[in-house]
Structure formats: C-alpha cells, structure tokens
Amino acid sequence: MNTAYGITAITLVCAVTLVTGAFGLRVSRTTSDFFVAGRTVTPYRNASAIGGEYLSAASFLGIAGLVYASGFDMLWFPVGYTVGYVVLLVLVAAPLRRSGAYTLPDFAEARLESRSIRLLCSVLVVGIGWLYLLPQLQGAGLAFRVVTGAPAWVGGLVVVVVVVANVAAGGMRSITLVQAVQYWLKLTAIAVPAFVLVGAWVGDGAPGPRVLGEAGPSWAEPLSGFGGQDHAVYATYSTIIALALGTMGLPHVLVRFYTNPDGHAARRTTLTVVALLGVFYVFPPVYAILGRVYLPELPGGTRADSIVLALPSAVLHGQSGQLLSAVLAGGAFAAFLSTASGLTMSVAGVLDQDLLRSRISRITGDDHVVAQGFRLATVVAMVVPYAAARLTEPIGLATTVGLAFALAASTFCPLLVLGSWWRRLTTVGAAAGLVVGGTLAAGAVLVTMLGGPIGGWPGSLLAQPAAWSTPIAFAVMVVVSLATPSRVPRGTARTMVRLHSPEDLALHRD
What we know:
Elements: H1 3-25, H2 31-36, H3 43-54, H4 57-70, H5 76-91, H6 93-98, H7 104-112, H8 115-148, H9 152-203, H10 232-246, H11 251-257, H12 263-280, H13 284-294, H14 307-315, H15 319-356, H16 359-364, H17 367-391, H18 397-409, H19 412-421, H20 427-450, H21 456-463, H22 466-483, H23 492-500, H24 503-509
C-alpha cells in the first residue's frame, strides 16, 4: 500500500472525528448532556449512531477474515449481530427507555432497589467494556501497521488520544453526532471499493474461489468445522445464542436507548438499526470470497483479519489498488474510533458514578464537578485496555468480540429480561444469577484467551460457553428468586408500571 495514501486517509478520518465532536462540546453542560445527550436524540440519528458504534473492528475486518480463513459458517456472525437487535426490540428496548436510567447499573438499582446489585453490575459493565475494547485497539494497531509499517502500539495510541479527546470534551452529545457520521463513512468506505473489486473480478472472467489453501476443501461446506473447532454444530448454535442474547447486555448498546425521547422512539430506533446493519453486512463476505480468488494463501505471519486491506492491491495493480486500500484503511479506523467511543462512554459513565465521583458532588448535584469526574473516568477507561492490548496476544478480532457477547448474554440478558417482565425477581436471585453466569462465562473466556487451544468437547464448551452458561444463569435467577420470596423489592409493582406504561398515558395522568 502507498504509505502516503494510507496516512492521509487515517488523518482525514481522525480530523473529521475531532471536528464533528467539537460541535457537541458547545452544548454539553449538564449531567444529562454528558450521559444521555439530554434524551433528545431522534430515532434516525440515534440509529445511525448505534450503527456507527456497533460496527466495530470485528465487523469491518474480522468477519471478512473469519469467512476467508474458515468458510461460509462464519456468516452466522453478521446474522447474529443483526438478530440481536430484533431480540432487543421485542424484549427490552422500550422498558429500558422508560426506566429513566443513565446507565445499566442505574436500571438495576432502580428495578431491584439494591446498592449491592448496582455495584455488581458496575463491575460487569467495566469488564465487558474493557474486553470489547481490546480488539478495537489491537485492530487499530494491525491496520496502522499494514498502512505505514509502524509498530502496532502506535495505531492503538492514535485511537486512545482521539477517543479521549472526543468523549471527555462533550460526552454523549459529542459522540452521538460523531458516530452517526461515522456509520455513513464506514458504509461508503467498505461499499465503494467492493463494487470496484467486483467489477474487476467480472472483467477477469469471474473465476471461482480456490478453497485448497490453509482452510482446506471444507471452506465452502456448511457445518464442517466452525472456526476450526471439533464440534461445529454445537459451536454454531452457541455462537448464535451469544450474539442474539448478548446484544442486549452490551453496555455501549444499552446506553443509546436512554438517549431517545420516549419508548416509542426507542422501538423506531431499533427497527432502523436492523436495516442499517443489514445493508453493511452485505459487503464483508464479498472481500472474503474475492480474497479466496486472488489471495488463496496469505504470506507467512499475516493475519486473516488483514484480508480487507490487502485485497485491493492484489486485484488492481498500481495506484488504483493502493488508493482503494487507503479508503478501506480510513473506514477501518472509523470503525475503531466509533466503537471505542461508545465503549469508553459506557465504561467512563460507570467508573464516574460508582467509583470516582465524590459523595459531595452526588449530594450537591454540581454539574461542573460531575463533568470533571467524568473526564477523569474517560482517561482511566481507555488507558487500562490499551495497556492490556499491548500485553495480550491477539486471538482474532471477531473471536474476542464473540467472547464479550457470551459474557453479556450470561449476565445482563437474564437480568434485563426477568427484571423487565417478571415481578417475582428478587435481589438475592438477581445477584446469584449474575455471579454464577459471570463466573462461568468469564472463566471460559480466561481459559480460552490464556490457556491456548484445547481439543475435543472441553475446548468447544470453553470457546463457546453461551449455550450452557446463559441457561444456567437464567435458571439460577429463577430458582433462587422462588426460594426467597421475601426479598422481592417493595416498589416492584410501581416500577413495573413505569416500565410498561406508555408515556402519553403518564402525561395524561399528570
């Protein structure tokens, strides 16, 4: 790739991000502005912003890399990512908005009237957020190294600096506009080169993919080896469960629904998000298939995640291919920046409210003190995962993100579903389910990331834990709640009415 082209593209994306975020700084003054953008974000802008933050490194680079390396089974990832929003729409989108919360721990405390549950949720939000931030920073390093040849840590540092500047300056006001713009930037950056490359492929006579490289002939056969694991059918279903149920437990996704004016707007937002995601996910498999045509085997030491950036130069020689690679590099950086912004926003909000903000500011409600605490929390929220990204070995962008989904599905999904719809949920039952589900899923994640490859059923169960950890978490919450009926929060009936009463009815009563 032409280094000058690549650096120019990345610089332009960073500049657009900072300039767009500066508009939010002008109107971010109160607590509501920083955490939920004043609850005034329209459904279509919010949907674009959600698409901007949700389409991460795993979507822009990781899915194409997975399909390229392991075959068509990996298409379940984009399907699962999109289906997750349908589940969220049906079960929790409107109740979450009506709760009036700023963060997921806010919702948990309001529903269960327990400070202990809030702190437990805060720990989980930070853990999931940091786990999800790892592939964003590692992917940024990968893209920057491919573009410039610089060490991987430089690309991650660029993301850290830009994100901290945007989030700390204007909070949710800033990143909402930034992420909405970045969705359309990413869609353009991945779609335009795809059309050009498909045109070149047709001009070459439309040769078929060569599947005899590192993936073997099973590349095009369904359920023949999900990601190289021994039990493909189990791995497939467990991945679908993690993605479909884990979406509602991702803190950077949930915080977006607190910015809508009302529950009806939250539902409209979700429907629009599904359409926007569906359009984007048409393109990553195109790069994977064309990669099998023009780059059946990658050079030694090259990760499959880089296939999107490497493909244009393999199809088009000269400046045309280099220019397309630069466009894709810019789009990839937009993905890192937008997703990292949403994750940092959600983690910083929890760190600020539950760990860093002084008790005096809580009592006085001084918005200036709140803003300063939030800005300090933003720095902490990014520095820790950046350090971890430098110390851990990348295991694949989409794989790491999948583990974060599994942890979210095993903890927050049962809490949100039962908390929104089941009056008999108790504080003890909720705590037990969170601890058991979080321990099981987190243990599997740690073993997978640190213990190296494990064969047979143990390896498959640990690499894809959602199929067993999520039902166990649900069961524990239900059984323990039934065994402790005296621990149902006193205000449950009032809270449930608030979660499910239309806003116009509440206004009419007032």
